[in-house]
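Internal QA ticket QA-208
Title: Verify multi-chain structure generation after dependency bump
Assignee: T.L.

Test input:
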Amino acid sequence: MSLAMLFEAWRAMGANRLRTFLTMLGMVIGVGAVIVMSAVGAGTQAKVKDSIASMGSNLLIVLAGSMSSGGVRLGSGGVQTLTVSDATAIEEMDTISAAAPTTSGSAQLIYQSTNWYTQVTGTTPSYFEVRDWEIENGYPFMDSDVRGATRVVVLGKTIAQNLFGDEDPVGKTIRIKNSPYLVVGVLAKKGQSLDGRDQDDTAIVPITTAQTKLFGTQFKGVVRFIMVEALGDSVMDQAEKEMGELLRQRHKLRESAEDDFTIRNLTALANTAQETTKAMSLMLAAIASISLLVGGIGIMNIMLVSVTERTREIGIRIAIGAKQRHILVQFLLEALMISIIGCLIGVCVGVGGALLIQKFFPISIAVTQSSILISFAVATGVGVFFGFYPARKAANLEPIDALRYQ
Amino acid sequence: MEEVIKIRHLNKNYHTDAGEVNVLKSVDITIEKGEFVAIMGPSGSGKSTFMNILGCLDKVTSGNYFLGGKDTNALSRDELAELRNHMIGFVFQGFNLIPRQNLIDNVALPLVYAGMKAHERKIRAKEILKSVGLEAFGTYLPNQISGGQQQRVAIARALVNRPKLILADEPTGNLDTKTSEEIMQLFCDLNEKEGITIVLVTHEPDIARYAKRLVNFVDGKIQHDGPTALHVKENA
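Actual output:
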């Protein structure tokens, strides 16, 4: 019986092809728009997520400075108060898995006839752990390199490519500020950071080497900042608080004194960024859903016309024994069929459109399965919702009025 | 004899802008199984309203209508639909076939609402189409055949669920004389061979002559009720 009714609905749709097509077009555009928009949203979200992941997880940064001296407040890094031993102490805390003291400067790197100006970071092997940064080729430097201040360097992907091209950099010697450094490893590619910097454009040397041999410093062991990785997401706040207390104690600050360091919770920042993109993609999908709604109104409109046109037919059906639910189901099925077929075409158009956009515009696009499933569910809902009123109108017709209708 | 239709003190009023109009006035009638009744009367005499009530398409204002022993006042809308489906076959003046469906599907439509399985429906519909001589046209659409043929399809549709009663509202109104005669002959055969009760509305005495009993409505009342041959002769 339901099969016969499906057939019947199909035939009714075929009876007025142009009209059916135009009604369907509303759904096609609606569903297509929802899919494209949520693909754009999901793409952006994925990109942000990648950038955040590339920063390292559960990351806290301790910056030196932010000290006030006679009412004049200096910004972060303004005073050099953090030391390598602060980092060592932090690393020993229960809630911390690794802490990397970091100092940096810029220098010209030279290999044979090529050279490259870049940021050189001095740090400890913990840095690779904190940043979740893999060595693609070779090895990272060791704690013994830090102790001995050896001239070894780990290169970022961008530098390796610019200095060495296709050559394997590991085992080669480059010159930094006219001193020879042995390349021990090349880092895996990380791509852009959230603020658009190329994270791979960096060279990493042991912190002692950077301080004593590369840049020099007035105070031995002073670092610009410490990158800290907490044990887990749940202990971030606790770690932040305990670290603050530890540093105050180590720096011998009085109760009334302000902190001479700043702790930044990068994960919180990252979460904000993620929330923002999530809100944006939701908004895009919401705007697109409006066209789906308009498509639904189109279906309702055409179903009302159809019911009026076929009043007499409805009368005949009632006369020969159709119950109210038979008529209701018949017209609901028609509305549903229009919306579901429209949705199917819309999915194709949406996915095709998303692929085209990806091909021609520099936007990251991710068509998600859930967006397809959701638009399917919504389209079905729209069909039922907007089909119900006309169908009920048909089912409630008085048999005698319907039969007499001219 | 078994009473197919029993009507007691039937009144039907319509609300119009001019107020209540009393269309049927205390009508009493009993129609038994196997009867062939023609209903005649001038326009506005209430005969169409009477037919609609017989067909359970319209409700009575007061009085009782028993169809096959069931009080129709006590039935819900859907129960009436089911009753129509099983008890009554309708034949309309305008044929009233569904234009998009082929003849087999048109004939099988009452069986859809009766809940019969698809392949059984098809067999039954073809069988009935054959009995009205249209087995070769099963896959045609209604607009591809003549008016007389369309009315045969409509009769086939009326018969498909083996009803006890056929209600025909001016079935020959849109047909020429020769086709009208063929259609009326078909009704006579159904009445005599199958024992189906037939009630027919017409304003043509030539058509009414085929019936065995004639009921004449004037001004909402039964003015005359008796065997046909006699009545038509008197008027002629």
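Spot checks passed. The first strand of chain A starts at residue 59 and ends at 64.
Status: verified.
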